[in-house]
From TrEMBL:
Main location: membrane
Transmembrane segments: none
Membrane topology recorded in Swiss-Prot or TrEMBL: Lipid-anchor
UniProt organism field: Paenibacillus roseopurpureus
Signal peptide range in chain numbering: 1-25
Domain of life: Bacteria
One GO cellular component, as annotated: membrane
Name of the featured protein: Lipoprotein
Keywords, in A-Z order: Lipoprotein, Membrane, Palmitate, Signal
């Protein structure tokens, strides 16, 4: 082999090696960039507001570029998480998510529970539940899990009884065994419940819709102490649950800074605390 051919072959090898290193470096750069750009979905209301004011700044200090995506109905946050349009969402409890995963064959998982605005009973016509009259109309959420949750709250208030062996996540109007006041149940889409107060006697409303409507949790005639199955969760795709961005999201929610914010924010009065803050 003459010296010219030898030098040519060496140049080709060096060039190929340089290209390989360059491609690898670019790949790592893109991967790192993707990990630092995250989209989090919400329904408009207190969970989006809290994230924007107190969680997002913590993530941005860690170098994340964060985009908040607000949806108009409860179907979109999970469908968008499944198709990759967003990276996480905060709007639902685990009971609702289980129903979605079963129905859609999706793989969305809970990372942690977050401070939760509880379900409550409200009225524009009466100041006490004891004033409830026979045949009173009570509006509540029409989605299966929150309808069941509302029936459980009515039972806790001593107004109805439901079958003792029924799964509290699946109770329906057909499971009411005693209704001495002959209460008329009025199922509605959850966002419509605050407006329904003008027409019905009482309404059972989830806390996020109460706050989104400009009402206060303290206006409730009865607030639930939400069990774990009804506490709002931070959710991600199952494949992402161990990724750094998911862990950083969870740590931001668990942080001392966010806890201090919630405990001192006027809008968060009445929120239940997750176990890791107790």
């Amino acid at each position: 082999m003459n010296s010219f051919n030898f030098c040519k072959k060496v140049s080709v090898v060096v060039l190929a090696l340089a290209l390989t290193l360059s491609v690898t470096a670019c790949g790592k750069t893109n991967q790192n960039s993707e990990k630092k750009n995250i989209k989090v979905g919400f329904l408009a209301g207190p969970y989006s507001d809290q994230f924007k004011r107190a969680v997002q700044p913590i993530l941005e200090k860690k170098g994340y570029k964060v985009e908040i995506v607000e949806f108009s109905n409860a179907v979109q946050p999970n469908s968008s998480l499944t198709d990759g349009s967003i990276d996480a969402n905060v709007f639902q409890h685990i009971g609702y998510l289980k129903g979605i995963n079963e129905k859609d064959k999706s793989d969305i998982v809970e990372l942690i529970k977050v401070p939760t605005a509880p379900l409550g009973i409200y009225s524009n016509k009466f100041k006490k539940l004891s004033e409830l009259k026979e045949g009173a109309q009570v509006s509540l959420s029409s989605d299966a899990s929150n309808l069941a949750r509302s029936l459980v709250l009515l039972q806790q208030a001593g107004l109805i009884k439901i079958k003792p062996d029924i799964d509290p996540l699946k109770a329906t109007e057909k499971d009411i065994t005693e209704n001495p006041k002959k209460i008329k149940i009025v199922p509605l889409d959850a966002p419509q419940l605050p407006r329904s107060l003008a027409d019905v006697d009482y309404s059972i409303i989830t806390g996020n819709h109460v706050i989104a409507a400009g009402m206060k949790l303290s206006d409730s005639l009865l607030l639930e102490d939400p069990p774990a199955i009804y506490q709002i969760i931070l959710a991600v795709r199952g494949a992402d649950k161990d990724k750094p961005f998911a862990k950083d999201l969870a740590e931001a929610y668990k942080s001392k800074e966010f806890r201090t914010f919630v405990e001192n924010d006027e809008k968060a009065k009445g929120f239940s605390k997750p176990d890791y803050w107790k």
